[in-house]
Structure formats: structure tokens, C-alpha cells
Specification:
single chain, about 15% strand, 12 strands, about 450 residues, 17 helices, alpha/beta, four-stranded mixed sheet, D-Maltodextrin-Binding Protein, domain 2
């Protein structure tokens, strides 16, 4: 199981930006969007769009209310998940972008290429030096320019059934070999004692939707010493998914799922929501996921029966997927007030609200303000100390600054999913994927 560090890529040419804008306009023609304004809207408030769902809006509203109380500036929020990008494209075409967008750090390259976000200068953010360098790096492009303000961070950790380990007298895994050993025992040795062959070693979100299977497998890739690309310098990259290390990572996945059959049935169609249930209900005994899952698991029957540990070390490292949520100042926004909101959202007050205002929706997973300690905020819960340590030492961001990393992740997901569905030779599957990946790098203008 694998983890990763941040490596920042280059921008596409201006012609690509123009193409992306044109494409956005075409998509927009088929959609309608709420009417945010480039300046403060008719009511005098900042329009803020959030990519999210459920109780997250309540958590953001707690932050916005505190901001309004302090500054007098009102915030008009809008939140959606599945159709967020479509609505944003429609707003762009209508010249009615919101003032601020709160979205994944992985959107940095897409948004910059489209020309819909403003460059940020640290001097515009109050107490900018209180934010961790790692968080700032997630908002920085290959040229060293900043195009967002970090708001939240996280890195995947391994959840594992401690009661199953105890019953079967197994070690807490610290290496790939121990992961495989424990996974096989969880699958074959009836750890729940019900006399049925209904348990599995590892829960995997293997659907191609939103690129989940690549998202999960990334950690294996980096831990094996592989990578998606090789940096050729000068903002150019060469696909590296056919390297011996990348093939080894694919082979390790195939061993777990195809040879040993230690992954939950139907995983190739499972999103994270479904995979959560596989762990919650005792179908699977291990799950590599983000610390946001603590609240989800603690609200289920698995509470008190699992522990969180650092991801086991692979042949090369213990790197694990790191992610973030960023604050984007949109083109044409009321920049002064937008930056004032963004500055507030990085303060200890706002960061703490993001972790505690709504326990079921921790919109701040790990604080990006170095004056805030996650474990202290969570009443001394040592799992958060672990999560913060893993992020700092082994967290590895994806190639968020590529002109369209989302498309590259989706390509990888499609091929990895097909490889696992057919139990294809990892060597041939990765060779085919590498050829396609290189072609897409060329399309994005960053191929070496």
C-alpha cells in the first residue's frame, strides 16, 4: 500500500487555455447556474461556491458567520457536488463567476489553464507565514506562482481491525509483506468467528468514477518507487508508468485482488461511500483512507474495534496520498474582500471551527495553520497526531499543477480497473497505459 510526496508540474501553452475556455463555454450552453456576480452581489455580500455535500455547508456557514461578525462582510454561499464544474462553466460563460470558490487542490492546474482564477501574493494574506510550507506548495505552480490559498490538508492512513489482529495473533503491518499476510488471514481464518467465509483483507474503492481506483493505487505506486511521470526539466515530463517499479506496484495490487482474492467482492464498482460500509460492517479488515473517516467509522458498529496506523512501507518508501482543499479567488472578483475572507479562513479560529462546528463534517481535516494542533482540537485523540505526522513526513500530493490532471487520473483509473477486472498481465497493461499517458501529456503541451 503506497504513499506520495508533492512534485509540481508545468503549465500548458496559451493556446490550450483558449481551448479550455472555449470548451467551458460549450458546456455552459447546456446548463444554468446561480447568479453570483464578479463584484459583491446585489445584497452586498461575497458569493462563495463550495464543491461539497451534506452537512459540510453547515460547517462553512459557522465559519462565514464568524467572519461576518468580525468584519461586517456578508457571505452568500452555494454548495453542490456532482454538477459543480458544469455550473461553474455556465457562470463563466455568463460572466457571473462567484467571488471565491472552495474546491480540491487538484483543480489548480485546470483553473489556471482556463484563466478563471487570480494569482495570489502571500503579502495579501494576513499571517501568511503561519501557514505550513507544505500547504503553500499545494497552491503553487511550477513557476513558483501561487494561485490559491490553502484551507485544509490530509494524508491517507491505514485503518485496521485491532480485534481481528488480536484474535488471529497477527502483527500490526509495517511492510507490504505483512499487509499481504494479514489480508490473507483476514480472508481465510474467520476473524469474526461466525463460521462463514464472509470476511476480506482489504477494502478498496475500485470504481473508475472520479478516478477512485487510481486515487487509491497511487500510494502503492509511490511506495514501490514508481511515479506517473519523469521530470525532464523545463516544464516537460515523460510518462513513467511502464517502469519496473510501476509494474511492481500493479503486480502487488493484482496479487491481493486476483491471486489471493483478499479484496471485497464488487470492489471494482465501489465508491468510497460503499467502501466505507465494507469496513464499517466487518466485511473487510483494512482500509487505506483519509482521517475524515474517523468520524464516519466512530458512528458505526466498528467503533472501538479498529486502530489507525501509518501506511506500511513499500520497497522504496512509506509515502501516502496527500490532498487539500483550496480557496480560489475568481477572475473579476472583489479581490480585497475575497482576500479578507481567505485570510480569515486560515486563522486558528476558523480552522478550529472547520474541525469542530459540525462533528460529522470536518471541512478542515488537518489544519494548515501551524499554530493549530489537530489532536488538541479533537480532545487529545492520538489518531489526529498520527494523521498530522504522516502528512508532514510522507504526504505526497498528486500532479495538481498539470493543465488537466483530472483527465490523466481518469485515464489511469480506466486502465487499472480493466487490468484488475480481467486479471491482465501487469507488464502489458502498464505498457499500454504508459503509451496513452504519454499521448495525453503531449495533448496538454507538457510532454518531454
Amino acid at each position: 500500500m503506497a504513499l506520495f510526496r508533492s512534485r509540481r508540474p508545468a503549465r500548458a501553452a496559451a493556446t490550450l487555455a483558449a481551448t479550455a475556455l472555449a470548451a467551458g463555454a460549450l458546456v455552459a450552453g447546456c446548463s444554468t447556474a446561480p447568479t453570483g456576480g464578479a463584484k459583491a452581489n446585489a445584497s452586498g455580500s461575497l458569493t462563495v461556491w463550495i464543491r461539497g455535500s451534506g452537512d459540510s455547508l453547515k460547517a462553512y456557514q459557522a465559519i462565514f458567520s464568524a467572519f461576518t461578525k468580525q468584519t461586517g462582510i456578508k457571505v452568500d454561499p452555494f454548495m453542490t457536488l456532482t454538477d459543480f464544474n458544469t455550473k461553474l462553466s455556465a457562470a463563466e460563460a455568463a460572466h457571473k463567476l462567484p467571488n471565491v470558490v472552495i474546491d480540491n487542490a487538484s483543480q489548480l492546474g485546470n483553473y489556471e489553464t482556463q484563466g478563471i482564477i487570480q494569482q495570489i501574493h502571500k503579502s495579501d494574506i494576513a499571517d501568511a507565514n503561519d501557514l505550513t510550507p507544505q500547504a503553500w506548495e499545494s497552491t503553487t505552480d511550477v513557476h513558483g506562482d501561487i494561485y490559491a490559498v490553502p484551507f485544509s490538508a490530509q494524508a491517507n492512513v491505514l485503518l485496521i481491525r485491532s480485534d481481528w489482529l488480536s484474535k488471529l495473533h497477527l502483527p500490526t503491518p509495517t511492510t507490504w509483506a505483512q499487509v499481504e499476510q494479514d489480508a490473507t488471514a483476514f480472508t481465510k481464518d474467520d476473524p469474526d468467528g461466525d463460521g462463514k467465509a464472509d470476511t476480506y483483507g482489504i477494502a478498496v474503492p475500485g470504481t473508475t468514477a472520479s478516478g477512485y481506483i487510481s486515487w487509491w493505487w497511487s500510494s502503492m505506486l509511490w511506495e514501490a518507487g514508481g511515479d506517473y511521470v519523469k521530470n525532464d526539466g523545463g516544464g516537460k515530463y515523460t510518462a513513467a508508468l511502464d517502469s519496473p517499479a510501476a509494474v511492481a506496484a500493479a503486480r502487488q495490487f493484482e496479487t491481493l485482488a486476483c491471486a489471493d482474492k483478499d479484496v471485497q467482492p464488487g470492489y471494482l464498482n465501489d465508491s468510497t461511500a460503499v467502501t466505507n460500509k465494507a469496513f464499517q460492517t466487518g466485511q473487510a479488515g483494512m482500509y487505506l483512507t483519509g482521517p475524515y473517516a474517523f468520524a464516519t467509522m466512530d458512528a458505526s458498529a466498528v467503533k472501538g474495534k479498529y486502530v489507525a496506523v501509518a501506511p506500511p512501507k513499500g520497497p522504496s518508501s512509506a509515502e501516502t496520498l496527500a490532498e487539500g482543499t483550496s480557496l480560489y479567488t475568481m477572475a473579476g472578483a472583489d479581490t480585497k474582500e475575497a482576500l479578507e475572507l481567505e485570510s480569515f479562513m486560515t486563522t486558528p479560529q476558523a480552522q478550529t471551527l472547520g474541525m469542530t462546528a459540525v462533528p460529522t463534517a470536518t471541512v478542515v481535516r488537518l489544519p494548515i495553520n501551524k499554530n493549530v494542533d489537530a489532536a488538541t482540537v479533537h480532545h487529545g485523540d492520538s489518531r489526529w497526531t498520527l494523521a498530522q505526522q504522516v502528512y508532514a513526513s510522507d504526504g505526497h500530493y498528486e500532479y495538481d499543477s498539470f493543465p488537466n490532471w483530472t483527465a490523466l487520473r481518469q485515464l489511469t483509473s480506466n486502465d487499472i480497473n480493466a487490468m484488475m477486472a480481467n486479471c491482465t498481465s501487469p507488464s502489458s497493461a502498464m505498457s499500454n497505459l504508459n503509451t496513452q499517458f504519454q499521448s495525453m501529456l503531449q495533448q496538454q503541451g507538457i510532454a518531454g
